Amino acid sequence: MNLTKKLYLIILTVFFAVMITPSYALDFQSMGVFGKASEVEIGDINNDGFGDVVILSGSLSSGTIQVYLGPDRTFFKSIHLPFTSLNGHHIAIGDINNDNFDDVVTSYARDTAAGEGELRVYFGPSLTSVTTIPNPEPNPQQGLGTHFGIAVASGDVNNDGTDDIVVGARNSDNGPISRVGAAFVYLGPSLSSPTKIFNPPSPNIVFDNFGTQVEAGKGFVVVSDPISFVTTNSRPRGDVHVFSGTTFSLIKTLTSGNANDEVFGDRLAVGDINNDGNDDIIAKGWFKDVFFFLGPGFTSVTQKIDPLGAVSSHSFGSGIATGDADNDGDDDVIVGALGSEKAYVYEAPGLSLAATLSEPSFTTFFGHRVAFGDVDGDAREDVVVAGFVQSFYFKSIATCVPPVSGDWMITTSCNLANTATAPANVIVSSGVVFTIPSGLSLTVPSSEGLMVEAGGGVIVVFGGNIFFT
Ligand SMILES: [Ca+2]
Ligand SMILES: [Ca+2]
Ligand SMILES: [Ca+2]
Ligand SMILES: [Ca+2]
């Protein structure tokens, strides 16, 4: 058989195999642990192309940030946050001064009248240079404070190429109306003269906690008031409000569609799920569900229910993050479920459940926060799942299985999904790493070959076996 014909046959065979069953699937490999974390974010602090893991461990009395550098997650720095607070510290990551080094944004909401919250930016790569911004509207008359800093997010809300900061202040006043909540937007790089976003009118606006959660989308700001519309039932509905990132006027109010009892907007995330250039919004409801709203209209809605149903104690969505786990251009979504100590990865754009992550002991409060970022530099974004006792790093991998018949041309780096027998030749494409994980084996017919293409394919037998029969 001449080479052209053979190649043609191989292409036909691989195409046929793909039609029968997907050759590659998204999965994650547990690779190590970090300490306890109340929040986690991943960004590139030193601009070397590897994501760096930023872990916040907070308590009622203190907060500490620890930074680990990719790709080996080596410890880089510990930053002590010198305040005590009932409402704790919060973190976000963005390049606030647009120098290509990601910066760590921290907020701190203090409950006492004496000093009411603060925003800090620690600039990469050293994280020694700090900009400190106090609460712009301290209200010492209020014993509870304004809760400035109860939530913080970073992203480019006005589309000028520099990341901005959104801060929630859920007890802030609106003129004579007290404690209706607000959000403040600080545009990078100056961070001067913040814009105050007021709580949009609603039937019951006092104490509805507008500003409890905030997000910074590409061109817009998201602020939730999860206890708005207080009902006669024990739990309120909650709303998620979307504002223009340039005029800061209200674009749309999103609801779950459930009339009451939803506490909607309890957790928020943004990302481009369908890779159309518009950021989409993901919001948690109370009834074990998470809603996905596609930008820019936010009219197309997808709802996901906790796969475990009632056992998760309303915690599905305790953490939500977006990132491109399989390097196909759209943002996949990880949803943590603290109550069941699991985290679920939904593969965009279809949002099918691609992986369920957990840890063996079920004692770490796994999943209350999650983060996406490319720590190992392979263009597939990895995840860190935070737990109050311990946090876990999972590397994004592709898994693969042989086709039902014909040669197996492996064209994407992947781990063999399970012990399998190849029907014919196994050919690893140039530049592709094919891994056989520990405990698994691949059997190849002795009449056929296992080969790598010229130009540098690699077969890694990582504790597994290759047999020829
Ligand atoms: Ca880095
Ligand atoms: Ca920077
Ligand atoms: Ca900006
Ligand atoms: Ca989109």
Topology:
Layout (H helix, E strand, L loop, with lengths): L2 H18 L3 E11 L4 E5 L8 E7 L4 E7 L4 E8 L7 E6 L8 E6 L9 E5 L7 E5 L13 E8 L8 E6 L12 E5 L8 E4 L14 E5 L2 E6 L13 E6 L5 E5 L13 E4 L8 E5 L4 E5 L7 E5 L10 E8 L8 E6 L4 E6 L4 E6 L11 E5 L8 E5 L4 E10 L7 E3 L3 E3 L3 E2 L4 E3 L4 E4 L4 E4 L5 E3 L5 E4 L3 E4 L1
Parallel strand pairs: 28-30, 29-32, 30-33, 31-34, 32-35, 33-36, 34-37
Antiparallel strand pairs: 1-28, 2-3, 3-4, 4-5, 6-7, 7-8, 8-9, 10-11, 11-12, 12-13, 14-15, 15-16, 16-17, 18-19, 19-20, 20-21, 22-23, 23-24, 24-25, 26-27, 27-28
One calcium ion (CA) binds next to loops.
Shape field: elongated
Bound molecules: calcium ion
**N- to C-terminal separation?**
24 Å
User: What is the typical, i.e. mean, pLDDT?
Assistant: 87
Main β sheet profile: 7 strands, mixed
Number of strands: 37
- Structural class by sheet pairing and helices: mainly beta
Q: Helicity range of the residues?
A: under 10%
Q: What is the tally of helical segments?
A: 1
How much strand content do the residues show? 35-45%
Rg over CA atoms: 24 Å
